[in-house]
Amino acid sequence: MNARLLPFAGAILIFYAGLLHAETRKLTREDCVTIALENHPAVMMLAEEQKKAAANYRFSKAPDRIQVNGEVKTAEYLKPESSSSGFNVPGRDTTIGIFAGASAIYNLIDPNVSRKQEAAKLIIDMSKMNEIKERSTIVLNAKAAYYTYNMAIEDVRLRERLRDKYRVKLETTTILFRNGQRPILDVTKADVDLASATLEYEKARNQESLAKIELLAALGVMDEDIDVAPLAIEALPSVRFSVAELYNLAENHHPELRIARLGREIQRINIEVERSAGSIRVDLMASLGFENKNLAGLDSMQDNVKTSNWEPTFHAGIQARVPIYTGGAITARVNAAEAEYNKSIYGEKQILLGVKALLRNYVQGLDEIKKQIELSRLMKINAEKHLSLAQKSYDAGVGSQLSLQDAETAVLDAELFSARARYEYLTILARLSKTVGLEEEYLCRK
Q: Tell me, what DSSP letter sits at residue 220?
């Protein structure tokens, strides 16, 4: 081999060896939350909503600036021999001219401009709150999926352990049957138990795969080469606030409530906007360009483009407008805006009632699960004692295989129940955090 190719070949071998021996990436709960917030499409959509709200606010500020348009329009001019005091007939007493140039309009009085700008500012705040709301939902989904996947892993571990026990039991029972110490019924029963335990193990593995897919979906990625680090649950955190205190925190931090209040304020401004639709609007107008005061007929169109027929001109003035009769349109729009405002009030009350109900349920659920965890701990201790006695009785030829199986199942059930209760506790705590609008670290005791 060419000596110059050796370093290149060595680099390739090292690269592929690294791929073959690469370990699966282990993610903590915080890693899952970070990945979800960085990759979920909903976050990117809300970022575009904020850009849209900012653009609409800039649009609402446009009336405060001069608006300049290029303009070409016809105009009538009084003939020198015609009287300006009498009734003039167009075409006989006037000539048709044309103006070409730039026209500028500057608003002097319009009460709706500032109100629309205020509403546009509130819409920016609402878009930010919508992002906070969506981010909290993404965080909750990531945490819940992480807990579910951890529970699935724990279930597989316990089911595998039980299956191995039943395999050992079948081997032991078979040997005892050959020695004449156990009937054939015990062998067939052990065989059935092993098949049942194997089936439950395979079901648990399938559930683990589904839980991983749901976790990846919650993170917004589909990278199969990632896994989660086991969650170490030493002591479950306790909420340090009472239900009434949680109500007060939620009223100030719950995203949906804050969005509802912003929506109510926007609807209030809309009422003022619709009511002021009948107010006067005053604009300063100015035009600068060239005019041709007497357009030639079709038979001499070339004269219209001659420079000598065009003169520079400047016009300025003030225009005031006020609606006199709108057919009831203003009143109808005001009534519609008032109805929307009332709807926003009722919607806010409905959200508040829902938040209070959720907080009561979550706090009660946490208390109940704590009691269940303590009971499962005692149940596991008793089940392990019973299993020890059942195993000794079975080994001595006194106990039955059914009693031993029930004892082993009781220990497994106690461990599974305890694990499920702990993950359910953490999930409810995450939901409580989302409802209040504050992190678990703030809500729980140090």
A: T
DSSP 43-95: HHHHHHHHHHHHHHHHHHTGGGS-EEEEEEEEEEEE-TTS-SSS---TTTTEE
What does 267-294 look like in DSSP terms, one character per residue? HHHHHHHHHGGGS-EEEEEEEEEEEESS
pLDDT at 402: 62
The predicted-structure confidence for 108-152, as pLDDT tens digits, reads as follows: 888 888 888 899 999 999 998 988 899 999 999 999 999 999 889
Whether the full predicted model's pTM is greater than 0.90, yes or no, is no
DSSP 224: T
Phi, psi angles (nearest 5°) of residue 71? -145, 140
d(CA 276, CA 114): 12
Count of CB atoms situated within 10 Å of the CB of 140: 19
Contact assessment for residue 145 and residue 106, using Cβ atoms and an 8 Å cutoff? no
- Tell me the HSE value of 114 on the side-chain side, using a 13 A CA sphere: 5
As a whole number of angstroms, the distance between CA 277 and CA 331 comes to 10
Check if the beta carbon of residue 186 is closer than 8 Å to that of residue 401: yes
Q: What is the pLDDT of residue 5?
A: 44
128: helix, coil or strand?
Answer: helix
Cα atoms found within 13 Å of the Cα of residue 355, Cβ hemisphere only: 27
Q: How far apart are CA 320 and CA 280, in angstroms?
A: 7
In angstroms, the Cα distances linking 299 to 41, 295, 296 are 66, 11, 8
Would you call 327 helix, strand, or coil by DSSP? coil
> Would you state the structure tokens that stand for residue 284, as one six-digit string?
């300063």
